[in-house]
């Protein structure tokens, strides 16, 4: 570290985590990289492991832990929500349909932002709505890039198939017609974190009478462009 914060234990803990940025390290490696005494390095690494800032690999070496990714995701979500308002509003104006942003939460998906169509028939999904991961184009997008085991577990109860998800991955967007709710169609595309992970889905939805039974032919380009703009905002925020 360049400077001391004046709080010694925090400075030393930061040294340990900084040493793990380059990859796994044994206790001896931590001692060498940080300059800390062996008992101190061990005590700090074990304390950080308790709080999930540090973990262990299969060889027992210290590695950065899952808590850091969780905090990074929370910070990314704040940036995502801050940027989503004008992008969803523009998507609504371009398509003439209600636009939403979904994030996965456990075995459900949550509408975290929306821009509603002001008049006429619309598919209103209030912010905060918790929907199933079993149906709908946003659910397809949020599941399509998960690991194969998680996909297989989820498909046991879903309205779509593995073939559907393979098509989503290939073309980069999804559509559904009456899958989540009778008479409603939707189109969705993925938002990627700077590391490339799918962290959200941008959607437009409305009555089948307007979106037709092939809504992707009409709205996929605009939905994908909106999702790409959000992904770009997140990427630039880390530069």
Automatic annotation (TrEMBL):
Family matches, as SMART domains: HTH_ICLR (SM00346)
Start and end residues of each HTH iclR-type domain: 7-66
UniProtKB keywords: DNA-binding, Transcription, Transcription regulation
GO MF assignments: DNA binding; DNA-binding transcription factor activity
Pfam hit, one: HTH_IclR
Top-level lineage group: Bacteria
A single GO BP: negative regulation of DNA-templated transcription
Domain (IclR-ED) ranges: 67-236
Name of the protein in question: IclR family transcriptional regulator
Lineage start: Bacteria, Bacillati, Actinomycetota, Actinomycetes, Propionibacteriales
